[in-house]
Amino acid sequence: MPAPPQGSPQQSGGNGYWSGTRKPLNCLIFVIPLLAAYEAGVIWLGGRDSDAFRSGADAWLRGGLEYLGLNRPWLVPTMIVVGLLVWHIAQHDPWRISLGTLGGMLCESLLFACVLVVLAQLQSYGVKNWHLAGTTTAIPTERVAAMAVIFLGAGIYEEVVFRLCLLPMCHGLFRTSGVRPALAAFLAALATSLAFSLAHYVGPAGESFRLFTFGFRTFAALFFALLFMLRGFGITVGAHAAYDLIVGLMLAS
């Protein structure tokens, strides 16, 4: 799991709340309950056919590992946990957890999710159909639990793939090409945001391409990229998962 790029806001020092939310250990403790709830939900709903209830990004990771002959069901969540622990050790951070910081991260996650909902409403102004989560009809009651699990997994694993892994990698590639730090951060955010949006239209489960949904998802990915750089991985996961659940379940119904 790559560390954030040099010069990134995630590497700023300090022991206050602002920097504490971006520390790998706090992010890990914050994300673990979400990860556990998702994995437990997948097993509870699917049993032996649990793959049918996994989010797209989770399925991509597992498919890639299976191609390499690594098809253990516990491997992907273990890699996330170990990766964040390695990042924590590499930064020589203290093994200290603040409940106040974790509570603040939860509040920020909900706040930023609501901000994105409002921004999405503004962007969709004048559009007759609701396209924000790719859903235009209410979800049947019997599918609510399954969709909740999938939305939760999307919030976790899409952030792992596109923000935690690809964003620092792209930033590093631009920096090694001689691009200045600020421009490299912008280009990395833009490139990964376009990739994030396009990924929703690829493969047998991909949606039909619509310019509105493509544009909104690119905008949302830029929002999450900025959130990742300024507020950390944990809050970004929380905001993404909360947004998907609000729009995909509460507003859709």
Overview of this protein structure:
The chain has 253 residues and is mainly α. The protein is 68% helix and 0% strand. The longest helix has 33 residues, at 144-176.
How helical, in percent, are the residues? 55-70%
Strand content: under 5%
| Helix-strand topology string | HHHHHHHHH
Specify the structural class: mainly alpha
What is the terminal-to-terminal distance?
38 Å
Gyration radius, in Å: 18 Å
- What would the principal axes of the Cα set say about the shape? globular
Number of strands: 0
Number of helical stretches of at least 4 residues:
9
Major sheet = none
Sequence stretches where pLDDT stays below 50 over 5 or more residues? 1-13, 130-136
User: Can you give the mean pLDDT?
Assistant: 85
Short structural summary:
This protein has 253 residues and is mainly α. The protein has helices at 17-20, 24-46, 56-67, 75-90, 99-123, 144-176, 181-199, 211-231, 233-251. It starts with 16 loop residues before the first helix and ends with a helix.
